[in-house]
Amino acid sequence: MAEARRAPRVKGGRDGAGCAYPSETVSPADHCVITCAVSGAVADKAQCPGIPYTPEEYAAEVRRARDAGAAMVHIHAREPSGRPTVSPDHYRAITQAILADVPDIIVNFSTGWVGLPMAERVGHITALRPEIGALNMGSMNYAKYSSGRKAFVFSFVFANPFEDIVFLLERMNEAGVKPECECFDVGHVESVWPLIDLGVIRAPVQFSLIHGVLGGISATASNLRHMASVVPEGSTWGVIAVSREQWRMVEAAASLGGNVRVGFEDNFYVPSGDMAPSNGELVEAAVAIVRSAGREVAEPDVARSILSLPPEPDRSALRAP
Fold it and tell me: Which of 147, 195, 269, 293 qualifies as a FRET site for 233, CA 20 to 30 Å off?
């Protein structure tokens, strides 16, 4: 059997854009970056009334999340009707409303979509140049199963071949956007090494380790520990977990030195089991867990240092009409 090739270990220093790696005074082990995914692209207000649709609602939700301790917002855009969209115009209107009220927040756009041409999946990123763009790192079955119904609620193949990943990375590089590698299983993390070798992604790499989606890795602390162990040295990682399993995974990530994501995209409920009235309550619960692990919650300026982002983001494309 051929020997598996591991992702190369990445040393400290500066990345290709000249951004400093995390320093000894701003350690990822001491500070936790909390991201809030405020809306997602699947659920609606009938399922969770707090999900934002309009730019004004997005701004209000991000304000609540920021006040509670979030340093970054992950955005799936919606039309005012609630319909998901990749339109740069809608992304611009939403982001402008957010930044008018929360100017220091780190902006992260999604590229996850099924059935769209690749240029459309990344068009809002190339047009608006957020600080971070999410990047799905591999193909997989993506499903939800109901044991009560003895049936799949939905099931499809989420295709992300290397050719598409490279295309998205090239467009992000041209726009000066840092990729966030979203990994649904261990092999997705290991898949980064040829991309580093090709020069389409630069160290240090930012990983989101996603747990609890059927077709990917299940949500257990031991799985997270293993997945984090194959992240290249010098890179950063955070956890994303779906539904109520989110909270035990936030606890695991906080204790292991990782970052965390919460928000209505992933889970509607606070640890008590009650539906959160806003994203702010979800962030508050994450903050309490992070602090109980003996760590500090990173403010946006500290988060930018940890994630190797420029200290002053270029908002010029987002401000354009």
Answer: 293
